[in-house]
Write a structure and sequence with these properties.
- The structure holds 2 protein chains of 2 kinds.
- Chain A folds into 2 domains: 78 residues, ACT domain (Alpha-Beta Plaits); 71 residues, ACT-like. Chain A, domain 2 (Alpha-Beta Plaits), CATH 3.30.70.1150.
- Chain A is 28% helix and 40% strand.
- Chain A contains 4 helices and 9 strands; from the N terminus they run βαββαββαββαββ.
- In chain A, the strands form 2 sheets. In chain A, strands 5, 6, 7, 8 and 9 form a 5-stranded antiparallel beta sheet that branches. In chain A, strands 2-3-1-4 form a 4-stranded antiparallel beta sheet, covered by helices on one side.
- The longest helix of chain A has 13 residues.
- In chain B, α7 links the parallel β6 and β7.
- Helices cover 36% and strands 17% of the residues of chain B.
- Chain B is globular.
- By secondary structure, chain B is an alpha/beta fold.
- The termini of chain B are far apart.
- Chain B has 3 domains: 173 residues, Thiamin diphosphate (ThDP)-binding fold, Pyr/PP domains (Rossmann fold); 166 residues, TPP-binding domain (Rossmann fold, 3-Layer(aba) Sandwich), CATH 3.40.50.1220; 178 residues, 3-Layer(aba) Sandwich (Rossmann fold), CATH 3.40.50.
- In chain B, α10 packs parallel to α13 and α15 packs across α16.
- Classes of the chains: A alpha+beta, B alpha/beta.
- Chains A and B meet through α1, α2 and β4 of A and β6 of B.
- Bound molecules: thiamine diphosphate (TPP) and magnesium ion.
Amino acid sequence: MRRIISILMENEPGALSRIVGLFSQRGYNIDTLTVAPTDDETLSRLTLTTRGDDRKIEQITKQLNKLIEVAKLVDLSEGAHVERELMLVKLKASGVQRAEIKRTVDIFRGQIIDVTPALYTVQLVGDSAKLDAFVDSIGGASVVEVVRSGVSGIGRGDKVLAL
Amino acid sequence: MELLSGADMLIRSLEAEGVEQIFGYPGGSVLHIYDALYRHKTVEHFLVRHEQAAAHMADGYARATGKVGVVLATSGPGATNTITGIATAYMDSIPMVILSGQVPGHLVGEDAFQETDMLGVSRPVVKHSFAVKCASEIPETIKKAFYIASTGRKGPVLIDLPKNVTNPADLFEYTKPEKVVMRSYNPVSRGHAGQIKKAVDEIMRAKRPIIYSGGGVVQGNSSDLLVQLVEKLGCPITCTLMGLGAYPGDAKQSVGMLGMHGTYEANMAMHNADVIIAIGARFDDRVTNNPAKFCTEATIIHIDIDPASISKTITADIPIVGSVQQVLGDMLGQLGRTKDSVDAEALEAWWARIEEWRGKQCLSYDVPVGEKMKPQQVVETLWKVTNGDAYVTSDVGQHQMFTAQYYKFKRPRQWINSGGLGTMGFGLPAAMGVQVACPDKTVVCVTGEGSIQMNIQELSTCLQYRLPVKIININNQALGMVKQWQDMQYDKRHSHSYMESLPDFVKLVEAYGHVGMRVDDFADLEAAMEECFALKDRLVFMDIYVDPNEHVYPMSIAGESMKDMILSKTERT
Ligand SMILES: Cc1ncc(C[n+]2csc(CCOP(=O)(O)OP(=O)(O)O)c2C)c(N)n1
Ligand SMILES: [Mg+2]
């Protein structure tokens, strides 16, 4: 099962490599990874998605928790949460296609952020499934370049991951 | 206010941690530190002949004392040479601090002479690591490193020290940090009272209980509590390879070691138990054999300081995360107050079955007349001659297993071996570290002619510091453990497990300035050993030729359950 693990960690050199190293060392997979400092510059927030059964995910979270720089972590997929991913995508858009692509972008509430006579650059935000769906509806032949940020997530309601 | 250089701060910080001895080898990037060692004279330094040995010495020192072992190595090859030693300590949760030199900060990343990314290389085998960027960080970094190494589940911590931060010309204000604050590291967790209560209730209902005790009891200084618990419950106890000595091996309730080369009675008792009380043990694959077939009848209570060890391979029914010391203390408290008592009748029946298993005498072996001495005889004689009282280190192989099986350890920290990583070459330097820590004690290294050659150069260090370690070389003229597997699984095709051109060890150790003895006949063994141990202030190397074809038994049958064992060359369960 796909899981979103969100980590609050010390913003120190080496911390990220320890997390990534742990995954490769123990044979776990990272599907996506994003990391940036929080409002408190001494802390970073890292979100990663991985796959595994309950037992494996429990081991992953326990092993992550053992890392000295990891302050707190939560498996967001265990409860209600919001997840978002940003995608920038360059699409072939000439001739009759141009209008059709514009319509699809609108349907997915994307924005065209750059244009050339032959191309549109589109920005799209949503959960990963929505981004996948967009690429599918456009059709592979029109897609020139895809850049995805990886998943960010936050718990719904009162749930907070903070020190 | 005191102004000090980074190198001076380093020594002062080590002093502040109570460090008296360190193990290392100099080189360009740590010369400022070596100069400070020379000037301060407060910290005694032992110069090894290979940095791997420095790490094993620090490790042996730590295992014997419970204190943090300290290693100092230069950048590049010096540091990478310590890796096997660090990994060995990591696998067995041994507290250690490694100070590794680094090229000056402005050269880092430029492939400078003797530059290695030591933080990167060591990452998978350390509990934590630090890169010092400025000398003023040294006191706090050292304090944190010692704190992390010696708390929670212990382990090695590496500090990377670029040469410029120890420069004697750059002075900084030195204040001794009083305590460490680390918001994201809180190692002390108390075992949950409710869980402990649940465990006690379960134990009171047990009909066939067994205690399975591991290295955590030794590292957690809790063997006295373990002894009380065993007494209170009247149940059998088995110790892992790492846990031997936490409970006296010759006491009645001890059924010996469990696992791959564990006793028949220990493995049978585990397999048939209805409640297993695992204490500071981690259900390692060398213990459980096939996890799917592991003790399917039993309710498992698992006490461990490391939450990640719980339910990693075998699901615990009653997990208790906490220090063994605290949890056992609380457990004994609850047991003292409870009105329930153990089911005496059931326990008696349980012991009757165990006695039956014991009756098999799985550790007996044949000694055909006129044939070569058996390795088991060597260990039994060693036990006798040393009164079962020596510190014993071992290398890795058959000799290690024979020592674990036949030397009945009485005390925790008496038995020192590389259990997790299985590092050949560990034995001699580890024994040297123990001897440094305990100068007046008898320290023995049981080794094989394969393993000893992996760090034989340390005989020179032993002479320099007059370390009177006694080396018992169980010489079977083969990489015995490898050969055993080849006998059993590869139809006796002995691919590269035979050591040709063995040196004349007696001459070799004499060349290093020590005493060598060779023994071929069992008839001469005891007298020779008496002579060896009478030479209190000399290193003696006993080269003892034994039967090259002996196997270690019992041996679990791979992929099966704990009850499935090969008992001898002709018998299986
Ligand atoms: C550094 C290292 N290399 C290889 C091994 C694999 N290995 C395990 S036991 C063994 C043979 C050890 O031979 P020896 O020291 O003579 O001991 P014996 O088994 O003969 O008693 C080997 C090669 C190991 N454990 N460590
Ligand atoms: Mg051998």
